[in-house]
Design a protein that fits this description.
The structure holds two protein chains of two kinds.
Chain A: H1 8-17, H2 22-31, H3 41-51, E1 58-59, H4 61-71, H5 78-87, E2 95-96, H6 97-107, H7 112-125, H8 129-143, H9 153-166, H10 172-183, H11 189-201, H12 217-228
Antiparallel strand pairs in A: 1-2
Chain B: H1 24-40, H2 49-61, H3 65-89, H4 94-116, H5 118-122, H6 124-127, H7 133-146, H8 149-167, H9 174-186, H10 189-218, H11 221-242, H12 247-260, H13 264-268, H14 275-280, H15 284-294, H16 300-321, H17 329-349, H18 355-369, H19 375-390, H20 396-412, H21 416-432, H22 439-453, H23 455-481, H24 513-529, E1 543-549, E2 555-561, H25 562-570, E3 576-578, H26 579-586, H27 590-601, E4 609-612, E5 623-626, E6 636-638, H28 649-678, E7 680-682, H29 683-694, H30 702-714, E8 718-720, E9 727-730
Parallel strand pairs in B: 2-6
Antiparallel strand pairs in B: 1-2, 3-5, 4-5, 7-9, 8-9
Classes of the chains: A mainly alpha, B mainly alpha.
Protein name (chain A): Defective in cullin neddylation protein
GO biological process, one term (chain A): protein neddylation
Organism (chain A): Linum trigynum
Chain lengths: 242, 732
């Protein structure tokens, strides 16, 4: 209950279903659709007003900072990304009222305490393969500038480092170095999404990299870059400690 | 008279009581046996055929066939044994003769015996499954003579010995050989093969193994091949004269194997005389011989082809990468054409136009011609040279031949679009300076290019020709409507349709007043008849003919560029001008102006201007004068015509960049076309489809295709499939 934030009944159910094994119980619990816990819309309204910007009907960066403070969470913490994902936020560093309220409702949150309780759950969502993929895909649209088609390189690098700290990819640093050295341009959506595929399909020794594999040319160039710099066949990164 | 009673007659068969004399069979047999003896002793004339036949007939009839048959066997056998002895006794040369003689005798005897015993042959023998008489006679001969221990090996050795002697140059009795061999053949193919042919082939193989080894040590390739051919022909002749025709293929393959197949690599690669040397020296006869011999052995032609290909590729590669050659593009291309002619000749005269060799030639050319990225440019320069002056005085047919050959080289190019770009540039210069030798030749080449590459390739080029013609008509119209201008300077304008002609940025240039007035008149005339168009003067592409009188009264006609004309006209009003003044007055951009002044002041024979100081470079402070001392042998002096030249490095880079840029939309268009019709296609197939579609013009780089695909994804023309990331889908 402490970890999942579940009610006692649900917890007991999950444990029973998994024969009282703790690990199994987590699986069972998370694979169930979350029961819609009742949220008080008045409380939500209050919560929103606490953080909203004085001049705009949005929660802006300032408000978000305060929220994080109150939650005792670092604003750079990846869990905020997960929160944004739940809210289906359009752009980073701002929440519309609808996004904020709708998102919290779907999470069953109407108070700071409940919010705090849900944080471990949200962290755990990153461990789920499918959810991670959705969050990853979501982040592209969220992190890019409004009205732009591509994601600025610096932002992209920041996002990648954040995301791949969670789901470890040994080549992430090389990737970022490569981009800064050779590419220096914005990242397209196709490249963004294909990169995730790349991390999931091709091992870090590049042994199963298929040159005919229809990877975006940027990734092909990355492979060349790795080969040039002696990373590759033996699976060891020679420049940065693996 | 007595009453004659009717009595029934019965005619009964005449029952001839055959008294079978117990000794009857023996007696009859004795008669026959005696006859056989006589026959073998050449005493047959005293015998009665009819009687003997009847005897044999009776024996069989009375069921004594068995006795008759076995008697025949034993009698014949004993005779044969005697014959065998007499053959064995023959010495030396007469062995074969004796054998032959006895064989003939035996055959005659056999014939007679068979005739006598014909009834048995037809009745007793088949029903008792015995060997027929004739065959029996042959078998007995075989078993008792040929396979007799004293004769068998002697016979074989004698025959082989004779063959060997003939091979070493002696003359032998071919008739006798033929008869003996025929005897073996008559005895059955098993006998011929086992008792002769098999050994003959083995021995021959050995012989040729040794001989070929000997030859290859001491002969060069051409000589060796001659010898091999000779031997091969000998063997074929031998077969026709005294061996079974079926042996021909067997013995020829022995020779082929021993003399050719086993030594192929060594022959082909022989130093100083091998295939490569033959190719270099156009040794048609030797090459033809090699071709004919090698085609008989497995992989023979393949070997020749491979060596030829690698040699050709190597030669070609050197040709196109040799820095010396690259200095003169016309020479470069001529050399390529010569090489092609050479090999066409070889394939024609020595390799009987073998298609696989022609293909090998094509592949090799395609390979090395594209090793040099400047090949398209050079080929265009070659054509340019020919069309300017090279084809002067050449007959129409010869012109066609040269152009066809150039087209062949063109076909080998991978980057045909690069050629197109250069060809356009060079054609423009030719047309504008009026320097083409033959309009017909120009058009003929355009037609050939159109046939090869389609309408789109040549539509702009044709547009250029049309513009020239139209301009002529326009000029006529202009002067017809302005008769007062007949006295002044003659203006010739070529109106170029933008888009058909290679684009050049036009730069500033102040025309002398006489000219600018005239130009304005033309402009208004033209725009009067063609509304909605814009004209801009391309002063960097024009030229002028000027009459000049120099200090000592010498008159010349100068053919100069428009820029040069502007500069020179200034000197009608001034004795001395410095660089700055000229620059100001003409507003010609500095690099062009400097080049223009250089060509008039610093080049021997063209120095109509004098410069102070006399340095080669143009400095900002230099002063210019008309060169009163100018002299030239010719009345007409050409200064600075705009001739097509090999591009400088930066120009080349620029052209190449433009070509690359032009390719991007073409790749995208192809991608969209393909995806629109296929709807869904995977990555590899898409790449190969695009390549196939574009290869008529150029070979697209797969990386570039990938980039274009990604660009199309960005712009929402295509998307990747959700499940299979290698699959693309067209978005309507």
């Amino acid at each position: 209950m402490a970890i999942t934030g579940a009610r006692q009944k649900a917890a007991v159910q999950a444990l029973k279903a998994s024969d009282w094994h703790l690990e199994g119980a987590f699986d069972v619990f998370y694979s169930q659709p979350q029961s819609k816990t009742h949220t008080d819309s008045r409380h939500l309204e209050e919560l929103y007003n606490r953080y909203k910007d004085p001049y705009l009907d949005m929660i802006m960066a300032d408000g978000i900072a305060r929220l994080c403070n109150d939650l005792q969470v670092d604003p750079q913490d990846i869990v905020m990304l997960v929160v944004s994902w739940h809210m289906k936020a359009a752009t980073m560093c701002e929440f519309s009222k609808q996004e904020f309220v709708g998102g919290l409702q779907s999470l069953g949150i109407d108070s700071l305490e409940k919010f705090q309780e849900r944080i471990p759950f949200m962290r755990s969502e990153l461990k789920d393969e499918q959810k991670f993929r959705e969050i990853y895909t979501f982040s592209f649209g969220w992190a890019k500038e409004k009205g732009q088609k591509s994601l600025a390189l610096d932002t992209a690098i920041g996002m990648w480092q954040l995301l791949f700290a969670e789901k470890h990819w040994p080549l992430v640093d090389h990737w970022c170095q490569f981009l800064q050295a050779r590419h220096n341009k914005a990242i397209s959506r196709d490249t963004w999404s294909q990169l995730l595929e790349f991390t999931r399909t091709v091992d870090s020794g590049l042994a199963n990299y298929d040159a005919e594999g229809a990877w975006p040319y940027l990734i092909d160039e990355f492979v060349d870059y790795l080969n040039e710099n002696g990373v590759g066949a033996d699976g060891f990164s020679r420049t940065i400690g693996a | 008279m007595s009453n004659q009673k009717k009595r029934n007659f019965q005619i009964e068969a005449f029952k001839h009581r055959v008294v079978v004399d117990p000794k009857y069979a023996d007696k009859t047999w004795k008669v026959l046996e005696h006859a056989i003896h006589e026959i073998y002793n050449h005493n047959a004339s005293g015998l009665s055929f009819e009687e003997l036949y009847r005897n044999a007939y009776n024996m069989v009839l009375h069921k004594f066939g068995e006795k008759l048959y076995s008697g025949l066997v034993s009698t014949m056998t004993s005779h044969l044994k005697e014959i065998s002895k007499s053959i064995e006794a023959a010495q030396g040369e007469s062995f074969l003769e004796e054998l032959n003689r006895k064989w003939n005798d035996h055959n005659k005897a056999l014939q007679m015996i068979r005739d006598i015993l014909m009834y048995m042959d037809r009745t007793y023998i088949p029903s008792n499954h015995k060997t027929p008489v004739h065959e029996l006679g042959l078998n007995l001969w075989r078993d008792n003579i040929i396979h007799s221990s004293k004769i068998q090996s002697r016979l074989l050795n004698t025959l082989l010995e004779l063959v060997h002697r003939e091979r070493t140059g002696e003359v032998i009795d071919r008739g006798l050989m033929r008869n003996i061999i025929k005897m073996l053949m008559d005895l059955g193919s098993a006998v011929y093969q086992e008792d002769f042919e098999k050994h003959f082939l083995e021995v021959s193989a050995e012989f040729y193994k040794v001989e070929s080894q000997k030859f290859i040590e001491c002969c060069d390739c051409g000589e060796y091949l001659k010898k091999a051919e000779k031997r091969l022909n000998e063997e074929i002749e031998r077969v026709t004269h005294y061996l079974d025709a079926k042996s021909e293929i067997k013995i020829t393959s022995v020779v082929e194997k021993e003399m050719i197949a086993n030594h192929m690599p060594r022959l082909v690669h022989m130093e100083n005389s091998g295939l490569v040397n033959m190719l270099l020296d156009d040794k048609y006869e030797d090459l033809g011989r090699m071709y004919n011999l090698f085609r008989r052995v497995p992989n023979g032609l393949l070997t020749i082809r491979e060596v030829m290909t690698s040699h050709l590729r190597e030669t070609g590669k050197q040709l196109v990468t040799d820095p010396e050659r690259l200095k003169d593009p016309v020479e470069f291309v001529q050399r390529l054409l010569d090489e092609k002619d050479k090999y066409d000749s070889i394939i024609n005269k020595a390799f009987s136009n073998d298609k696989t060799f022609q293909n090998a030639l094509t592949n090799s050319f395609e390979y090395f011609i594209n090793l040099n990225a400047r090949s398209p440019e050079f080929i265009s320069l070659f054509v340019d040279d020919k069309l300017r002056k090279g084809l002067k005085g050449v007959s129409e047919e010869d012109v066609e031949i040269i152009l066809d050959k150039v087209m062949m080289l063109f076909r080998y190019l991978q980057e045909k679009d690069v050629f197109e770009k250069y060809y356009k540039q060079h054609l423009a210069k030719r047309l504008l300076s009026g320097k083409t030798v033959s309009d017909d030749a120009e058009r003929s080449l355009i037609v050939k290019l159109k046939t090869e590459c389609g309408y789109q390739f040549t539509s702009k080029l044709e547009g250029m020709f049309t513009d020239m013609k139209t301009s002529q008509d326009t000029m006529q119209g202009f002067y017809a409507s302005h008769p007062e201008l007949g006295e002044g300077p003659t203006l010739v304008v070529q109106v170029l349709t933008t888009g058909s002609w290679p684009t050049q940025p036009s730069s500033t240039c102040n025309l002398p007043s006489e000219m600018s007035a005239l130009c304005e008149k033309f402009r208004s005339y033209y725009l009067g008849t063609h509304t909605g168009r814009r004209l801009s003067w391309q002063t960097n592409m024009g030229n002028a003919d000027m009459k000049a009188t120099f200090g000592k009264g010498q008159k010349h006609e100068l053919n100069v560029s428009t820029y040069q004309m502007c500069v020179l006209m200034l000197f009608n009003n001034a004795e001395r001008l410095n660089y700055k003044e000229i620059e100001q007055a003409t507003e010609i951009p500095a690099p062009e102006l400097k080049r223009c002044l250089q060509s008039m002041a610093c080049v021997k024979g063209k120095n109509v201007l004098r410069k102070e100081p006399m340095s080669k470079d143009i400095g900002e402070e230099d002063a210019f004068f008309v060169n009163d001392k100018f002299s030239s042998k010719f009345y007409k002096v050409k200064i600075g015509t705009v001739v097509a030249q090999k591009e400088s490095e930066p120009e080349k880079q620029e052209t190449r960049q433009r070509v690359e840029e032009d390719r991007k939309p073409q790749i995208e268009a192809a991608l969209v076309r393909i995806m629109k019709s296929r709807r869904v296609l995977d990555h590899n197939n898409l790449i190969s489809e695009v390549t196939k579609q574009l290869q008529q013009r150029f070979l697209p780089n797969p990386t570039e295709i990938k980039k274009r695909i990604e660009s199309l994804i960005e712009r929402d023309f295509l998307e990747r499939d959700n499940v299979d990331r290698k699959l693309y889908r067209y978005l309507a």
